[in-house]
Amino acid sequence: MTELYSKEGFVFTKNEKNNYSLSFGMENNNIILSKIIDFNLVKLIYDLNNDIYEKVNLKIINDNEATINLLMRHLFEDLGLPQRFSIYILKKHLKKTILHLNHRQSNQKDQKVCQ
């Protein structure tokens, strides 16, 4: 695992070829972040970028884990490049007033994307 970027609790690492992890934490003593920031908010962020993502499917496994399948728009179809997709595993960790969200790309190449 190679750390590519780390600053103020935001860590972006390369696990292996074409496999990356993103981790960050937030702390707020005045607002209960776990009530506001959940997996549906992450889905909303992707949904708002519909110029990039054609389909977004969120599967919530439990309160602390979910998977999200992303089908990107076929931006370079005229150049003969294939349409891209990603499968991410999302994990949420809460310690007192600190919320950590981990976003890791899955190695599952054979899963059907955005059914």
Keywords, please?
115 residues, 11% helix, seven-stranded antiparallel sheet, 2 helices, TATA-Binding Protein, mainly beta, 7 strands, globular
Report on this model:
- With 115 residues, the chain is mostly beta strands.
- The chain has one domain: TATA-Binding Protein (2-Layer Sandwich).
- Helix content is 11%, strand content 51%.
- The protein has two helices and seven strands, in the order βββααββββ.
- It has helices at residues 33-36, 39-47; strands at 2-7, 10-16, 19-27, 53-62, 65-72, 85-95, 98-105.
Q: How is the topology of this model organized?
A:
Blueprint: E1 2-7, E2 10-16, E3 19-27, H1 33-36, H2 39-47, E4 53-62, E5 65-72, E6 85-95, E7 98-105
Antiparallel strand pairs: 1-2, 2-3, 3-7, 4-5, 5-6, 6-7
Produce a short descriptive summary.
The protein has 115 residues and is mainly beta. The chain is built from two helices and seven strands, in the order E-E-E-H-H-E-E-E-E.
CATH class: Alpha Beta
CATH fold label = TATA-Binding Protein
Q: Mind telling me the C-alpha Rg?
A: 16 Å
Annotated CATH architecture: 2-Layer Sandwich
Q: The biggest beta sheet, please?
A: 7 strands, antiparallel
| Mass-distribution shape | globular
Helix content: 10-25%
